[in-house]
Amino acid sequence: MLDALIIGGGPHGTHLAIALLARHGLRRGHLAVLDPHDAPLGQWWHCAENTGMTHLRSPVVHHLGLGPWALREHARAHGFDDKAHFLAPYDRPSVELFRHHCAWLEDHHRLAQVRIQGLAQRIQLDEDCVRVETTSGQLCAREVVLALGASASLYRPPWAGELLRGGATIHHLFEPGFQASQVSATERVAVVGGGISAAQVALKLAVRGCVVHLVRRHGPRVHTFDSDPGWVGPKHMRGFLADPDPDLRRRKITAARHRGSMPEELAEALDHAARAGAIHLVEGEVTRAHLLNGLGSPPPIGLQVGQDFLAVDRVLLATGFLRDRPGGALVDRLVEEYELPCATCGYPILSPNLRWHARLLATGALAELQLGPVARNLVGARRAAERSATGW
Ligand SMILES: Cc1cc2nc3c(=O)[nH]c(=O)nc-3n(C[C@H](O)[C@H](O)[C@H](O)COP(=O)(O)OP(=O)(O)OC[C@H]3O[C@@H](n4cnc5c(N)ncnc54)[C@H](O)[C@@H]3O)c2cc1C
What is the percent of the chain with per-residue pLDDT over 90, rounded to a whole number? Predict the structure, then answer.
């Protein structure tokens, strides 16, 4: 029997695995990370590559290694030039450097030895252990950590469903199997979304030569980070944790997260591209979306946005994630079978060390009501590893 099984090998699952091996002395063979992708952090890299992001949004101290300065030291030790690989303010690292560091961590901590490729399909909380039915057989562990992320809960506006059923070329930017690199330079593309990912992919496609319309409901919301840095430490978190009411915590999270925002340099790049005619910015709601049958194969798509009518070959949704509790049927069933406590918003009510049950912990998006607005971020993974460690 495993001591611990982490379900999900994204940033959260990976950082926790590193902390359990290196800080808490769990032995390989007693720990496993279950994830369906064929490479570590597969989901994260898929999303990052599709956006075309060159730098992370978070500062240098937010990474998957142990000490806060590990990424900075890694850059120095491996000859990464400061100017090219850190972006002011807050020394945000380049994707290239971050990838190099992740690969080094995987190697150094021999994470391949704890990886099991597969998908958890059912979790049974027994008295002596947790049994997990997976696509690779049954696993048994003393404790299980849900590090499922939110990638299965992509938000698509209601009008997108009709287009999809009609066979239109429409994808969510983070959808499994969709590669933004396949969009050809001759296409007319409507990118839908007002946040950082929409801006990044719009710029990337414009550079490729595509005709790009960026459709957003609001003007640029400029914020360096997706929540105030005070949420990383006690400044805001003390008050948040002092209040036991999960509904109030949810309201604080909603108010704190700068949804649909982007850092200044990206807003400027977008503005510059728009003034140069490389990107057409369209502000408003899509009020009608339909296939322009008879005008080619596959038929182009017509989008009505206020007074603007756009005819495009492809719609790319950069519309983020659903607000519902992530984890889908796997988690729904757990909640029902074991009557696990949930807030009105549906999210888990966890103990301060992230326990949902004597043998079950959660991290990432599922731990939002404990970790606050940064739960989904890289620093959330670091906080989760510190908090849950008190229970190992
Ligand atoms: C493009 C992009 C850029 C970002 N940039 C930053 C940044 O610069 N700084 C920052 O702090 N944050 C950033 N974030 C936010 C944060 O890093 C991500 O949200 C992060 O992916 C969350 O990690 P996670 O491990 O919770 O989820 P994921 O990365 O989604 O990983 C979860 C994993 O669990 C797997 N899984 C799900 N269900 C099961 C199951 N039933 N069985 C087995 N495995 C399962 C999934 O397939 C996935 O591989 C970014 C996010 C995106 C999308």
Answer: 94
Q: In sequence order, what are the residues at sequence separation of 6 or more whose Cβ sits closer than 8 angstroms to the Cβ of residue 195?
A: 221, 259, 260, 261, 262, 318, 320
Structure tokens that stand for 159 in this block: 């009008």
Tell me if 234 is assigned to some domain.
no
**Residue 203 to residue 43: CA distance in whole angstroms:** 22
Neighbouring CB atoms inside 10 A of 384's CB total 27
Give SS3 for 86. strand
Distances (CA, A) of 376 to 141, 162, 181: 25, 31, 26
| Predicted TM-score (pTM) above 0.85 | yes
Q: Residue with the nearest Cα to atom 29 of ligand 1?
A: 10
User: Is residue 194 situated within a structural domain?
Assistant: yes
Q: How confident is the model at residue 157 (pLDDT cuts 50, 70, 90)?
A: very high
Atom of ligand 1 nearest to the CA of 379: 11
Which atom of ligand 1 approaches the CA of 8 most closely?
34
Residue 382 has pLDDT above 70, yes or no: yes
At residue 26, the 3 state secondary structure works out as: coil
147 Cα–ligand 1 center, Å: 9
DSSP β-ladder status, 31-35 and 2-7: parallel
From atom 14 of ligand 1, which residue's Cα is the shortest distance away? 377
How many separate domains does the chain show?
A: 2
User: Looking at the predicted structure, is the pLDDT value of residue 194 above 90?
Assistant: yes
* Residues 193 and 318: beta-carbon distance below 8 Å: yes
Q: Which atom of ligand 1 is nearest to the CA of 43?
A: 49
Does 9 fall in a domain? yes
State the CATH number of the domain containing residue 173. Answer: 3.50.50.60
